[in-house]
Structure formats: structure tokens, C-alpha cells
Amino acid sequence: MATEEIRKGPWTEQEDYLLANVVNLFGDRRWDFVAKVSGLNRTGKSCRLRWVNYLHPGLKRGKMTAHEERLVLELHAKWGNRWSRIARKLPGRTDNEIKNYWRTHMRKKAQEQKQTITPSTALSDSSSSSNPTQESLSPDREKESFYDAVGFDAEFSLNGNKQAEELVDRVYSMDDIWEDIDKAKESHISQLYNSFNEGSSLYCPMTVSPVRDYCSGSLWKMDDGESKMFLPSTNQFPSYYDLSEAPSYG
DNA sequence: AACCTCCGCAACCGCCAGAAA
DNA sequence: GTTTCTGGCGGTTGCGGAGGT
Predict the structure, then answer these.
(1) Which protein residue lies nearest to nucleotide B6, measured between its Cα and the C1' atom?
(2) For position A238, what pLDDT does the model report?
(3) CB atoms within 10 A of CB A224
(4) Running along chain A, 250 residues long, what does each successive block of 10 average in pLDDT?
(5) Does domain A66-116 correspond to CATH entry 3.40.710.10?
(6) Dist CA A122 CA A128 (whole Å)
(7) Please, what sign has the CA dihedral across residues A116, A122, A123, A124?
(8) What end-to-end distance do the CA atoms of chain A give, in Å?
């Protein structure tokens, strides 16, 4: 492979767009593959991070609710810095987000609490059996990761794209995969490139999510309430991409 | 109005575990 | 059974914006 330098740093709008489409096409498992197919000069790792922390359609944005704060506090007291584990109890929140949040908010709060309340009644309580919050607030999530619960595959089929479903269902050999790479590069991916570069409004049947919304600092418009998120029986991937509204990227 | 400091967040790095060859 | 590869996780860093002086 030609040794082009691997890109690092902030993602561009175009990169997000490509990644979202490629993930929608091939799934969010084989990140090395996704990185190659997309033509992004990024590592699979980087692609995964971007998807998981930013592009995933199920992500919640905006401030943590009081309930979420409590939950984070309790679960952290229980599990420590197991951020991904904690994140699974807060659908729509990523480990990175919780980690950041903890650093900036919770630690401070916890310290304040420690000072105002006696230590024995503050954090230690949550690790005891008198901790109904976790069970009562997240009854069905115990065995399900966030992605299992509201993740990609389920919605993937909901898109009603047969070819895509087959791609997911089927177990791939490496031959299959490389065949797909060639096909994808020749057809769909190049179309994506072209569509994007032409700056046209694109109605891509496989479009994952409204990429342009990411840029405005909010994955989903929170004004309408968070009800727009986690609609298991509805299509979470609005099939639009209106570049004319896209804010500039950096 | 300009400068400085702090905060929030996106992204990277290194390590580890599990899967595949 | 061993080695290599890939993905996941936790820790850390750096940048940009907001707020304060």
C-alpha cells in the first residue's frame, strides 16, 4: 500500500460523511476494513472512536440530567473508573463523555458532598445493598450493551435495505471482504466522494445520520426533546443531507 | 476592548484481551 | 500452542470557547 501519511486530528465534515456511510454499509465491527473501504486516511481505531463517540445515531447530546448525574456518581462509587461499563447503564452516553464529565463535574461534586456530608453517608452508601437506583432505573440493560440495545444492527435492518442486511447477516471471509472493498471503491464510495465534492443535496439510501447536525455541536436537535432519540421502531437515520445548511468545519 | 484563565470536549496513546491465522 | 492482528478500554493531552479581570 502506498505509504500515505495517516491523518490525525480533528475530523472534517467530509470524513464524517464518508465514515457514516461506510459504517452504514458494512457495519460497525471491522474498523480496519471500514477505514480502508472509506478511503479515509485514518486508522481503524480512529474511525471507531469517531463513530462511537460522535457519529453514532443513538448518541445523546447535551447536559447530563440530574438522574444521569446520580447514576454516574453511584456507579462510579460501585465500579470505579470502569467508564464503558458505566456508560452501558446510560444509554446514549459514551464512556468518553462520562469520563470527561466525571473529571469536570462529578469529582468536584463528590468532594463537595464529602465536605458537607459525613463520609460514611456519602459515597460508601452506594456500594452497599441499599442501592435501588441502578436496578430500578435500568431494568433491561443488564445484559445489553448500549449498542446491543439501540445499536447499529437493529436499525440497519429497519432501513429495509436488503443488500445491507445480507452483508450484516453473512459471515465474511477475507476474500469476501476484499471483494467488497473493490466493489465498494468502484461504486458506492466513489459516488459518495463525488456527491460530496459536487456539493449537491444527497439522498443516499444508506445515509446513517444527519452529519450536518454534528457540526452544530449537537447530534440531535435537543429542542424537540430527547424523544427523538432511541426510537427503536423508527428509522433513526434520516435520509437527507443538505449541504446548503452545513456549517463550516473549523 | 484586550488579555488571561478555566473549562469542556474531541481525539490520541498505550496497554490489554480475545480472535484469527 | 504460538504469534499476530484487531478492537476495546482507560488515561491523558491539546484546542477552542466562555467567562472573568
Answers:
(1) A104
(2) 34
(3) 9
(4) 67 87 82 84 87 83 81 81 83 85 70 55 36 33 33 34 38 45 58 65 38 36 32 32 35
(5) no
(6) 11
(7) positive
(8) 30
Nearest protein residue to the C1' atom of C6, measured from CA? A32
Architecture in CATH for domain A13-55:
Orthogonal Bundle (1.10)
Q: Hey, what's the cell of A131?
A: 442501592
Distance CA A145, CA A148 (A): 5
C-alpha cell at A209: 445520520
| pLDDT of the residue at A83 | 84
Instruction: Look at residues A147, A180, A6 and name the one whose alpha carbon lies nearest to residue A15.
Output: A6
Which nucleotide's C1' sits nearest to the alpha carbon of A108?
B7
Write down the pTM of the prediction: 0.61
* A47 CA – C6 C1', rounded, Å: 13
Domain boundaries, chain A: 13-55, 66-116
